[in-house]
Amino acid sequence: MNHLRIKQQLEQFLIEDIGVHDISTNAIFPAHRVGEACFFAKETGVLAGAEIIKTAYQLLDPTLQVDVHVNDGEEVTNGDIIATVKGAVRTILTGERVILNMLQRMSGIATMTNQAVQIMQPSNTKICDTRKTTPGFRMFEKYAVTCGGGYNHRIGLYDGVMIKDNHIAFAGSIRQAIKLVRHQLGPMVKIEVETESEAEVNEAIDAQCDVIMFDNQSAETIAQWQKLVPSSILTEVSGGITLENLSLYRHVEVDFISLGCLTHSVQSLDISLGGM
Amino acid sequence: MNHLRIKQQLEQFLIEDIGVHDISTNAIFPAHRVGEACFFAKETGVLAGAEIIKTAYQLLDPTLQVDVHVNDGEEVTNGDIIATVKGAVRTILTGERVILNMLQRMSGIATMTNQAVQIMQPSNTKICDTRKTTPGFRMFEKYAVTCGGGYNHRIGLYDGVMIKDNHIAFAGSIRQAIKLVRHQLGPMVKIEVETESEAEVNEAIDAQCDVIMFDNQSAETIAQWQKLVPSSILTEVSGGITLENLSLYRHVEVDFISLGCLTHSVQSLDISLGGM
Amino acid sequence: MNHLRIKQQLEQFLIEDIGVHDISTNAIFPAHRVGEACFFAKETGVLAGAEIIKTAYQLLDPTLQVDVHVNDGEEVTNGDIIATVKGAVRTILTGERVILNMLQRMSGIATMTNQAVQIMQPSNTKICDTRKTTPGFRMFEKYAVTCGGGYNHRIGLYDGVMIKDNHIAFAGSIRQAIKLVRHQLGPMVKIEVETESEAEVNEAIDAQCDVIMFDNQSAETIAQWQKLVPSSILTEVSGGITLENLSLYRHVEVDFISLGCLTHSVQSLDISLGGM
Amino acid sequence: MNHLRIKQQLEQFLIEDIGVHDISTNAIFPAHRVGEACFFAKETGVLAGAEIIKTAYQLLDPTLQVDVHVNDGEEVTNGDIIATVKGAVRTILTGERVILNMLQRMSGIATMTNQAVQIMQPSNTKICDTRKTTPGFRMFEKYAVTCGGGYNHRIGLYDGVMIKDNHIAFAGSIRQAIKLVRHQLGPMVKIEVETESEAEVNEAIDAQCDVIMFDNQSAETIAQWQKLVPSSILTEVSGGITLENLSLYRHVEVDFISLGCLTHSVQSLDISLGGM
Amino acid sequence: MNHLRIKQQLEQFLIEDIGVHDISTNAIFPAHRVGEACFFAKETGVLAGAEIIKTAYQLLDPTLQVDVHVNDGEEVTNGDIIATVKGAVRTILTGERVILNMLQRMSGIATMTNQAVQIMQPSNTKICDTRKTTPGFRMFEKYAVTCGGGYNHRIGLYDGVMIKDNHIAFAGSIRQAIKLVRHQLGPMVKIEVETESEAEVNEAIDAQCDVIMFDNQSAETIAQWQKLVPSSILTEVSGGITLENLSLYRHVEVDFISLGCLTHSVQSLDISLGGM
Amino acid sequence: MNHLRIKQQLEQFLIEDIGVHDISTNAIFPAHRVGEACFFAKETGVLAGAEIIKTAYQLLDPTLQVDVHVNDGEEVTNGDIIATVKGAVRTILTGERVILNMLQRMSGIATMTNQAVQIMQPSNTKICDTRKTTPGFRMFEKYAVTCGGGYNHRIGLYDGVMIKDNHIAFAGSIRQAIKLVRHQLGPMVKIEVETESEAEVNEAIDAQCDVIMFDNQSAETIAQWQKLVPSSILTEVSGGITLENLSLYRHVEVDFISLGCLTHSVQSLDISLGGM
């Protein structure tokens, strides 16, 4: 992640929670009181966002000392110490909630992504995300997906072309839609086409798109369509895939399966601050 | 919600997704092409965030016409039309994803909150939220909780005092912690104390705090402690409550039960844009 | 005060004054020229904002050395050195005006608040502020009030309920207004009611609000009404109180007296930079 | 004032006060309730900032109707209606405090400036402001000075050169300081020199600066020095001038007298919202 | 271009020029004075940025009426009227310079791009831009390139992979560098490789990158290398190409030629505001 | 330049280019890899913006070590090392493009300005800039002009009065326009008048403006008009001056010649990062 953007967004997040000041902590702890605490896991999962602890505390108080003991992408289990913090007690407590909110959500995403990755073993199919992220929080969520072993689809509407049913309907055909788009594209942008029938798959292949999405199809159908596609074109399965039904797609040999639930319906990983 | 803040944050959210421009849509649809579409529910739940549709589209293009058919807090079921939009097809498609991401997450929260509210019927205990929200998105999530029939706990660290175990440990006693805090408080701030034993409950009562939290206790313990508290002090149950175990607390007669999961581990409500 | 917000606002304040650059100082002093100077009081008053000196100079140049000799809330008199600064002369001079503008205004507020606090001695009545602050500068002004021994009323419209005459008129009665509000409040928000007659005071007591304000009443009337209010409800006097008439209210035994003039009509405390 | 900057700063000011929402007003008034109210003066003074009423309300709700009846710079007396507002009661009440805070402070400045202008009648000496403004609020305060008949000195450190004692000391002489500065200036920047002795006045005249400031001198001294200065150089009196001692300088015939108190120690003009 | 970003950046640009206010125009023209003026070309070129005129003036004053007579990408010649503006003279004059600065620079870029496109006729080679843009102004400059008939290369470091010499040196080989990158890429990102020898071209082909750049080579060399590359891989020529030497590459049959000078060394197109 | 504004704008510029992250570099270089590189000139010119290298890299990573070997305003020739950088290779490469874009453009402006300054030798006429700058980048461009030996005209519309033909036409005469303006000006603002005939020059002299501009006149005419102007009024030549025709004005003895081309039509100076 771009460190400058992390800092800018963290400032905003910390101000959202702290406002004019943390009245409880400032009333009870004097400014000079120092202490030590640690962030530790309370359940098993994959960590994402360890850098947040350091950056957030440094924004609040550059003299706070943070040691991170687990790398992003590594597994933690109940009781594992993720990081230790030493310094002003006020700062440690004031930053706690925002840091936990980020760590827990990001690690929840990494953990769920990793479960999806495990389910797909030993196939070569990769797990990827979607644009169904929490507004304002996309960079962190997409990064968390990679910590879990997943891959990022488009960052936004600006860095890849996705031709959907209503684009095709308006253009008249997949071929025509791709032609319109290619007419405006520089050398570095890929074109993906959503397909809903074998005819569309064939049309997309003929039009030489970069990626073909099989949208909302059964595993059987997908397995058949996949055989039609040359290796120079990537394939993606999307639409209604969850951890529950994911294993059905293990043998279809597509390149990517994208799961919206990785970012829109995730359980936080239980992480806590303690030992102070 | 403060309309000015909605607009400011929506601008940021839309720019996060659109970047320099929506290459797919702009390549295929000419600027003058108009159309009509609707946002509709694909499953049963409680709506939250209808105002977002209007505000987001007006930021992108003030000539777009948006009619909202369901109010926040009302139930929708599969197929219900939430809003219709008429105007430039480019704008309708470009704004779609951000609007859906907000509506789906907010309605997911409202729906889960409402389930919690239903479980607590017919007791007088109210459901409330926590500060365990997605960073940068708290205003929307806390509002969604109220759409589901829940109540808001503190907005942040600045608008209420919460005295926790480490505050008490440092101050020496609940009484001393409250004294320290009250010494700095104006007339409009409430003090809540986390208690973990009957002795602490009694101490908190003596010290005349405004709210007592029973932290991580069994329903039986809570029922007993609740009887000790005079009606002038509000009570709150917190810690590890989920939709699964919530019904255990239906008969304990506390004033509020707070659930972190309402905002940190929620399923999106399935909503879609269609009919164009 | 939240250090992150201090920094963000100071950046804005310094840029407001410096613009593209300080032409006078940059033309005369070479970049490498170092010097030493001090901020000192030119009249007697209570200091507020010492932290500003350090933070402002560190934003402009982290190598500048600032030593603060007086704590916020302490009295200074003519000639007292508040802080000494060593480092690049350019930076010392370029930051001077903004720092003085803040220190002087904040210390003026602390001084006036302290005068009010002294006037109320030896009663238990506390002095508090209002929302009548300079737009964009509220956090600093409310903090300055506490440096002078005063207390903060609401931070804004979001962290406390104030039921005024037109709310009551529309709702039909104080009881009905409180009922409407309480129906939407979580556990941590207080309700204050403005009263203008004994009947209203009694109604507010019956409706169990948290704070009763006696609005624009004579000291005699207030003394009488105060006797009606149980100790579980706080009382506040407001409306047209100044340092001139404040002593009239010394014996009325209310909990708080709020003064708009503390923030809307204050004299700066005379502070200067010298000795370079 | 630059309308774009007014809007940007008003957004910030309104969000400072409203936060996530106005809980009192939203709980009592339904969204559809409309009403009418007016801003009126409660004492005599000079109005400044009428445009704020319109702009602030339009930011909150473009359907609100605002009619302004008094122009900036005109006198108002107790009971004069400044503006009437029609529309959603919620919006009228939610915006009230920020608008009043601005109007009252700006009109307080205009009124005090006007008093200074009256005191100087019938001389040709003009009243002007300083950089001793409230941080973040300078544009509004400097504009208010012009509404009262005053003039603006430098906007900041970037649009005019002011050579002070420590500049002169370092450069070696006024002549040398001006030479250093002029060496770096384009055609559009003026140079003012602070003088504290007749010798300095003569040196400044010889060095052909644009403005000479007589710093902290008695009226008699100033009257003498003024005679030395050719009409091609403007003169300014500064330092410790208040409304109380201003009349002493009525006959010294300088071009400008600057008063820091116009912006750092002003009484708000009493203005209220009523009639709803 | 994303209309929301245009507005945000235009606000910043207008405030950069106008500051607190346009002293000249406000002093001379009364607020109610209306007039009419037009933007017209003073030399031949390709227009880019017509939308700026409307958006900028609407930010300053929504009642101003702007009619645009030429579309982006169309040729204008000396005397051609690009747009007419009616409304407050103050606003017309205050916005003039920023609008012209944008129109002139963007049209300069479009014109130079178009000259490059003409030079490459009748080959199929497309002209594209680079990341050598003016910081903060990239969106406008990249859009202007498309108005001139050119294409956009990467928007930034985030939407495409470019493997350069130092990447290759560190990774050990092109194959290894691509492997490292591909290991982290989702389905929608393209990989371009800079090549400086025939061996590198062959290695890049073997490694199946998406685009091969021939960096700083003679037209003859490029023509040879181009023959090695299969049609499934795009080719780009880059490095030191200007309008002067561009025609040398007309017959090399590559897909794209990128020119840094289109954005880093461009002549403004002469456009003026007149007729008022 | 104001260091705080440099940092704020650099943050924006770096985020514009880096977005969520630099995918190429992060995929190939591990975080701990350190290296060394240098910025060096590839052609002869005048350097401007050396401070940018340090500030940009410190924003990205405070541990990066930057040593600058050439001062702004000094000449560099092909091969000259401007600065060396040591530290994380990722950071060195990620910041490269934005730094080069700034250095190259700013040095291009300094170089062109210096050429103009050389052409005017040995006259006393100074070269100055205009407001024809790239929107959002003005502070950097105006600073670069001074590095080349030029001077800055107005920063914007707020720090100097320029009376143009349409101001004069509306006011009725130059005298009347100046009177209107002077009526609103404080002591520190200069007035410049554009003149297009000898009569206008004489009128401007009579009205005692501060600067007279000879707009779009031949060198002969200017030489004549210049003789009319007393030494207390500065003169400026403007309109269509380029490096090609500048020498024609060497003997006209005006104070300033302003060139729009210095900022609107400049060639970048070729600078590169290498040696890693």
Can you walk me through this structure?
The structure is a homohexamer of 276-residue chains. Chain A starts with a helix and ends with a strand. In chain A, helix 3 runs antiparallel to helix 4 and helix 6 crosses helix 7. In chain A, helix 9 links the parallel strand 9 and strand 10. A 6-stranded parallel β-sheet of chain A has the order 6-11-10-9-8-7. In chain A, strands 3-5-1-12 form a 4-stranded antiparallel β-sheet, with helices on one face. Chain A has 2 domains: 117 residues, Aldehyde Oxidoreductase, domain 3 (Alpha-Beta Complex), CATH 3.90.1170.20; 151 residues, TIM Barrel (Alpha-Beta Barrel), CATH 3.20.20.70. With 276 residues, the first copy, chain A, is an alpha/beta fold. Chain A is built from 10 helices and 12 strands. The longest helix of chain A has 32 residues.
